[in-house]
């Protein structure tokens, strides 16, 4: 108890005595034992109350010795099987734990890691990936206080996570890597990452990008072969050396048939190559046929029609049919998109078809347009007023965002022949191009997209579009920018796909089972995510009798199933929403690919740099005694004597309250009994 508290207690005694003196003895001539008893009770009450306010405490110190933490972190990935044996690593760990000097100086902990880190007392080498950075970062967050020595048993080869070489732990932590495995660097050539799109269109070309990597000191040459479903489509020779140890290959291949195509990239083995597992790699792409049929309906001949046809058919996935307004309904039904060029009264049957079918369409007006008919036959827009013909210059709306405009620009473009009437758009819309008349920008659309309802519409209030295509060629010696603009418009208008209430997200090919996960998103009828759905997945093997139905678990904003226990092979699956008539199916393939087998040599240089960045030193498994000796003699990892202050109240407040209550009650009864109240 400190001096300040003692002084406060003395002051409390003095204050209580002073108050009692003035209440019972000062100018109070009454004598007798009763006054002394009442004064004593009042003193007890006042003194206890003041003690409650002071709350006197005393501090006791406990002294204890805090040992440093010795953390044994063991790489439990399958690559360690080729580097060592479980018995050898277990024996090394047991040797450290049995060292009396180490046990006296350290509190020993043991962890194992692969994909994740766990507390363990065994070595099993059964993890499919190695994430050294995650293991070290986790320990860094767990062991914050005290001195920490991390002994890392690993071959130094990592397959997941950020580069562990650049990790810097807390200043009180030190890393001592123990290299496990063969440190000899063998000549090796391998296939690296493969980049390919998920989908490709039939008859279109798609790119394949891959990297070839080389490890060795001598120049090496090998042949890279690209095959699709077993058929060779490309072959190329690569020359590498110690300075140029990688090369990226970019290949363009034509999609010749519909379906899922397996792409295999293989590089020929070197003469003295030890590891050939990494000389080939597979992926997949799905080829789909989505040819868009466009019908241009016109009752006249005009250069715009030929220009549109050439622009649209510049992509082989689109074809154009030129129709008269009296075309039969069966012919119109074959079209994915209909372009109405300067409609007149003869288009009545075409508009009836559009109304009944809900097909998407693009209207182009001009000098031959029958405005009275057009205003009556449709409700999307109206043009009133004088409708005087006028040459209108275009002004591009740079804020337009329904689809990409690419590099398309209308700067310096010739005017279109349009109408000066009052244009009223009756549906939600976005303007692509505004009108400019005699140098004045008008807040009127020249080209607009109507976005209301499921039926997509576009309208161009002007003819002589062919002049724009010619202007693009005059500027660039190519029609490409104009054709791409029209192509983007066709893609937008030609798509009738509505949002599915059940969406799937998965890869066609998984490199290994550890990566095999399928996600699903389910939406209610108002297209709001439903987190209470009961969704299951049925997985069936193509090459075997495997079949299993599993629930998909909610993971935030999607449902997911983990298929990491499946064997390599091909599988079909169906995702079903229970109590709803909703199903989606698909297929995937799991490759017999083990990233842990891609490297055979221990990366001792990387482990050495990790140790240097974290005040440690590199050791080898056959020199474990050196590690033990350095740990026991380290001046930075000595046990530390610490003290702990225990603050304890001098008097329990419950006792003080009890004394106050008893003294007040006794004083009241005595006064009552003697008629003083």
From TrEMBL:
Coiled coil: none annotated. Keywords: Membrane, Transmembrane, Transmembrane helix. The chain crosses the membrane at residues 6-26, 33-54. The keyword Transcription does not apply. InterPro entries: Class_I_gatase-like, vWFA_dom_sf. This is VWA domain-containing protein.
């Amino acid at each position: 108890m400190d001096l300040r508290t003692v002084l406060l207690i003395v002051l409390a005694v003095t204050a209580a005595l002073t108050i009692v003196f003035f209440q019972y003895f000062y100018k109070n001539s009454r004598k007798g034992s009763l006054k002394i008893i009442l004064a004593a009770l009042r003193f007890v009450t006042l003194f206890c109350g003041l003690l409650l306010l002071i709350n006197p405490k005393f501090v006791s110190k406990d002294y204890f010795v805090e040992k440093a933490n010795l953390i044994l972190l063991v790489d439990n990935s399958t690559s360690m099987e080729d580097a060592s044996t479980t018995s050898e690593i277990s024996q090394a760990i047991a040797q450290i734990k049995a060292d009396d000097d180490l046990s006296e100086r350290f509190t020993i902990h043991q962890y194992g890691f692969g994909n994740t880190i766990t507390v363990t007392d065994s070595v099993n080498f059964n993890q499919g990936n190695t994430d050294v950075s995650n293991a070290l970062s986790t320990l860094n967050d767990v062991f914050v206080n005290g001195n920490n020595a991390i002994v890392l048993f690993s071959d130094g080869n990592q397959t997941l996570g950020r580069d562990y070489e650049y990790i810097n732990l807390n200043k009180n932590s030190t890393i001592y890597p123990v290299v496990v495995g063969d440190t000899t660097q063998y000549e090796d050539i391998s296939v690296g990452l493969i980049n390919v799109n998920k989908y490709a269109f039939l008859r279109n070309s798609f790119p394949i990008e891959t990297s070839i990597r080389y490890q060795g000191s001598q120049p090496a040459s090998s042949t890279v072969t690209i095959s699709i479903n077993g058929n060779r489509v490309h072959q190329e020779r690569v020359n590498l050396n110690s300075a140029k140890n990688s090369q990226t290959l970019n290949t363009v291949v034509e999609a010749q048939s519909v379906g899922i195509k397996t792409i295999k990239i293989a590089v020929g083995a070197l003469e003295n190559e030890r590891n050939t597992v990494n000389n080939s790699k597979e992926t997949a792409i799905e080829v789909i046929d989505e040819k868009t049929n466009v019908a241009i309906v016109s009752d006249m001949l005009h250069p715009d029609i030929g220009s549109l046809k050439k622009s649209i058919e510049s992509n082989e996935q689109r074809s154009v049919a030129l129709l008269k307004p009296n075309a039969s309904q069966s012919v119109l039904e074959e079209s994915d998109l209909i372009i109405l060029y300067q409609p007149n009264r003869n288009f009545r049957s075409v508009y009836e078809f559009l109304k009944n079918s809900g097909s998407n369409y693009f209207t182009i007006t001009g000098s031959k347009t029958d405005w009275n008919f057009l205003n009556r036959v449709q409700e999307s827009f109206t043009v009133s007023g004088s409708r005087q013909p006028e040459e209108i210059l275009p002004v591009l709306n740079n804020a337009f965002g329904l689809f990409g405009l690419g590099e398309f620009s209308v700067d310096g473009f010739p005017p279109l022949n349009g109408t000066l009437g009052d244009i009223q758009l009756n549906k939600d819309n976005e303007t692509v191009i505004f009108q400019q008349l005699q140098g004045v920008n008008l807040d009127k659309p020249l080209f607009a997209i109507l976005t209301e309802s499921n039926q997509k519409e576009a309208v161009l209030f002007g003819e002589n579009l062919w002049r724009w295509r010619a202007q693009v060629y005059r500027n660039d010696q190519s029609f490409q920018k104009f054709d791409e603009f029209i192509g983007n418009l066709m893609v937008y208008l030609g798509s009738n796909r509505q949002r599915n209430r059940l969406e799937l997200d998965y890869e066609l090919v998984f490199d290994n089972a550890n990566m095999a996960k399928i996600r699903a998103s389910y939406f209610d009828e108002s297209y709001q995510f439903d987190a209470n759905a009961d969704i299951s997945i049925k997985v069936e093997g193509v090459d075997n009798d495997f079949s299993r139905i599993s629930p998909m678990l909610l993971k935030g904003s999607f449902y997911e199933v983990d298929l990491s226990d499946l064997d390599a092979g091909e599988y079909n699956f169906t995702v079903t929403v229970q109590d709803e008539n909703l199903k989606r199916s698909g297929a995937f393939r799991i490759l017999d690919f083990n990233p842990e087998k891609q490297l055979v040599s221990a990366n001792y240089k990387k482990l050495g740099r990790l140790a240097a960045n974290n005040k440690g030193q590199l050791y080898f498994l056959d020199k474990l005694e050196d590690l033990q000796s350095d740990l026991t003699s380290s001046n930075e990892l000595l046990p530390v004597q610490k003290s702990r202050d225990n603050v304890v109240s001098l008097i329990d407040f419950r006792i003080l309250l009890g004394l106050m209550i008893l003294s007040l009650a006794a004083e009241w009864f005595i006064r009552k009994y003697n008629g003083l109240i």
